[in-house]
Structures are given as C-alpha cells and as structure tokens.
Amino acid sequence: MYRAKRAASLKAKRRVGKYELGRTIGEGTFAKVRIAKNLDNGDHVAVKILDKAKVHKNRLAEQIRREICTMKLIQHPNVVRLYEVMGSKTRIYIVLEFVMGGELHDIIATSGRLKEEEARRYFQQLINAVDYCHSRGVYHRDLKLENLLLDVAGNLKISDFGLSALSDQVKQNDGLLHTTCGTPNYVSPEVIDDKGYDGALADLWSCGVILFVLLAGCLPFEDDNIASLYKKISEAQFTCPSWFSAGAKRLINRILDPNPSTRITIPQVQKDPWFKKGYKQPVFYEQCQASLDDVDAAFGDSEEHHVTEEMEGQPASMNAFELISMNKGLNLDNFFESDKKYKRETRFTSQCPPKEIIDRIEEAAKPLGFDIQKKNYKMLMENPKAGRKGNLNVETEVFQVAPSLHVVELKKAKGDTLEFQNFYKTLSTELKDVVWACDDEIQDRSSSP
User: Fold this and answer.
1) Where in the chain is the domain with CATH 3.30.200.20?
2) Are 208 and 252 spatial neighbours (Cβ–Cβ below 8 Å)?
3) CA distances from 161 to 130, 140, 167 (A)
4) For binding ATP, which residues are annotated in this chain's numbering (predicted)?
5) 390, containing H or E segment
6) Rounded Cα gap, residues 341 and 354, in angstroms
7) CA–CA separation, 13 and 24 (whole Å)
8) Where are the beta strands (DSSP E) in 39-140?
C-alpha cells in the first residue's frame, strides 16, 4: 500500500519530445495509454507507453518492432493511425491517432441492439479495414467490440491493429499463432483448440461475432462455465433472434462456421447481397510517406537518438481538451446514452484538498469490503468477493482543474457495470460533503455559455 503525498507534490506534467502528456486513458499488462498534446501544432494524440524492461523480459522487442514497422505503413480511414515511435532509455512511446467518439461497446451497453442499416454500415467499415490490413500481411487476432472506436463523425476506427505482441499472443516453433484467450467469446474454435490457426479466418470469425452483437445486443456464445462456453463456440451453438433479416442470418451462419476450411472468406463476404446493400467505398485521406527511421532509433541503445523526457514542476492539471474528452455532452456516446445506469465510469468535482478526497474515498470504500491500493493521487479499489462477473475493481484518480477545484474520476476496471453503478451510488452518499458537483452537473456547467 502506498501513502498519498502532500497536495503540493501532486503529480507533475511530463513532456516527451514535442508532446505534453496528459491523463491516463487506458492501462494493460505491457502498456499505459495517455492523452497528449503536440506542442508544435496543438493536435491531440494518444501515446502508448511501453516499459522496455518488461518488453525485453518477455522477449517481445523484435516482434513489437517488426509489427510497429508494419503498422506505420497502414493508412486506412477505419484504422487508428500510428504516427511515430520514440524511445528513451527505459520506455518506448507509440504515438497514435486519438479517437474521441468512444467505444462501440458503450453504445450497445447503453442502448442495446442497433438498427440493421446502422449495424451494416459499421460492419462494412470493419470488413473493409480488416481486408485492407490482411492484404498487407497484418492480422488483429483480438477483434472485439471494445477494440472498435468511433470518431466524431460516427465512423468506425479499429484500435490495436497489428500490435498482437502486446496481447497474450505467442508464436511457437510450428510457425502458427497460439493464444491464451482473455476474452474467449469472440475467438474462433481453431484458436481455442490451440493447434495453430490462420489469422485471416480467425479475424473473420470475430467479425461475425461482432455483427451478431450489433444486431442482437448480446453475444452469440455465452456461458458462466468456461468449458461449456468453449463447447458452444466449437460446435457453433447459437440462435439468431427472430428480428434478424433472412440475409443477415444467412451471412452470419456462413461466417460462424466452426470449420475454417468451409468458412466463408472476406472476398465472399464482400460479394454477399446483404453486405453490398448501401455500400460506400472508403474515402482514403492523403497518403503520407512512412519513414521507419524512428522505429530503429526507439528500440536502439544509442542515447543520441533517445527522446528527451522532462518533468514540469507544477501540479497535474487538466486542460480544456481533456475536460472535453471526459465530457459525454461533447461525445458521440451522448446520442445513444438513454439508460445511464450502464456507465462504466463517472466523475465528480470537489473543492476539498486532494489528500482529503482520497482519504475520504478510502474511508467510505473499506466498510463496503474493498481493499485499497494508493499511489500519489491514484487509487485502486478491489473487492475480493466475486460478483456477477467476477471481482469488482474500481480505479480512481484526482485531477486538478484550478487551484481549489479538482475532478475525481472513477472507472470500472473489472467486474459488472451495474454493480459498479450501485457501488458509486452508495459511495457518493457517504461523500456528500466532499462532492461539489456530480457527473451531469459537470456537463451542464461546461456546456453553459
């Protein structure tokens, strides 16, 4: 357990090369993702930060370097762009396009299934992007709703395409891909079988599961028992709901064929009558000449080519862009969010000192059965008692927006979303004297003239 530091030492801003790093928006086994601002042109990007020691320990350096080189050549309107790579003595920084529209997963979670026309448009964009990447030898291998983002215009953006080394994928001596599945609902029978698989056919199976979810609002394969779930996937035990059109049913059944040798291929999907309805060719942006020099420099040991890392001696503050990115009122999610009980994150503002905020949250969470880990002004609350979807873990962070005003963000890191919302209701009741304005009030104030 960590002790919180004094408010005066609240986390400083970090500058890496020409980028000023902002708040953390994602975290995984090998990487952390932060919003950043390009100080040269004011553009905002997402920066994926890898620990070199972890990468080398797991013998992934060469694979990641190779995959990054490939991804720099991928320039498709429905794939998140990889702009550049930088390296320091201890870290690798992957600079990516920042997509503000949120996850497609959140739309389904809040509003349920989509209309067929809307689902078809997203599926067309998905297949176009996957086919483009496959034609360049790049496979995703972890396609799921959570990896599908939306830009401000409502267009699909696939994240993490080609960066399979950052997931739990490994390549064994037979040259085929093998995996330990973290989210097995989307993976094909041959992946579960772990005898090696074709990346293109495995990706297409995942696309079929995604199409089913978009049209049905639920997964085709679900079971609390992992062995039973694997059996359902291996035997393709699923039923299309009655509202599916005949064309959609036929296409999904051809994609979710458990035998990869008879499964439909992407070129065949693109010729399918249901798929072709209302089809629009992707509009490619201006192609840039990709240089791979920065990749070699990032992974090299020469300090001459390492990026400069600087810490600014000021409290961590949240700029206007970061407030906007947190505000659903300026986010596409708002158009779909009719049932707010399914939100996976929430926030409130407080005029209390940050140490007092953290201490009060800890005091309120402990009686509810949560174990607490603190580091500076971040907190992880873990409930050892399993709920409907395992243990509920909640990440909390305090940001300074003015000398006497802070935003407190709580995000569900693991567990059931409804249980997270019930936990937050109980917690906020205990923090009435700490909370200045809750999530909806923050949006109202930020959108007021």
Assistant:
1) 15-97
2) yes
3) 9, 5, 11
4) 48
5) strand 390-402
6) 27
7) 12
8) 44-51, 82-87, 91-97
Output DSSP code: residue 222. Answer: -
Cα torsion angle, 182, 149, 276, 214, sign = positive
Kindly report the CA angle at 301 between 296 and 304, in degrees rounded to 5? 85
pLDDT band at 172 (very low <50, low <70, confident <90, very high): very low
d(CA 114, CA 211): 10
**Of residues 326 and 238, which shows the higher confidence score?**
238
Asked whether the beta carbons of 392 and 409 are under 8 A apart, the reply is no
Q: Out of 30-39, 67-76, 163-172, pick the least confident.
A: 163-172
Could you give the CA distance from residue 177 to residue 195 in angstroms, rounded to a whole number? 8
Catalytic site positions: 142
Answer yes or no: is 48 a known binding residue: yes
Structure tokens at 163: 């960066």
Pinpoint the residues of the chain covered by CATH 3.30.310.80: 311-334+341-431
Residue 410, amino acid = L
- List Cα–Cα distances, 45 to 38, 72, 182, in angstroms: 7, 15, 27
Work out the percent of the chain whose per-residue pLDDT is above 90: 33
* pLDDT tens by residue, 398-420: 887 777 788 888 988 888 777 88
CATH superfamily of 311-334+341-431: Kinase associated domain 1, KA1 (3.30.310.80)
CA dihedral 131, 134, 136, 142 (to 10 degrees): 120
Confidence of residue 132 (pLDDT cuts 50, 70, 90): very high
The model's confidence at residue 266, banded by pLDDT at 50, 70 and 90, is very high
Q: What is the DSSP string of 348-383?
A: EEE-S-HHHHHHHHHHHHGGGT-EEEEETTEEEEEE
Query: Which CATH superfamily does the domain covering 102-164+184-270 fall into?
Result: Transferase(Phosphotransferase) domain 1 (1.10.510.10)
**63: Cβ contacts below 8 Å, ≥ 6 apart:** 165, 171
Give the DSSP letter string of 285-299.
PPPP----HHHHHHH
Phi and psi (nearest 5°) for 311? -110, 130
User: In the chain, what's the furthest Cα-to-Cα distance?
Assistant: 64
Spatial distance between the Cα atoms of 23 and 43, rounded to a whole number of angstroms? 15
* pLDDT per position as a tens digit, 426-448: 888 888 888 877 655 444 444 44
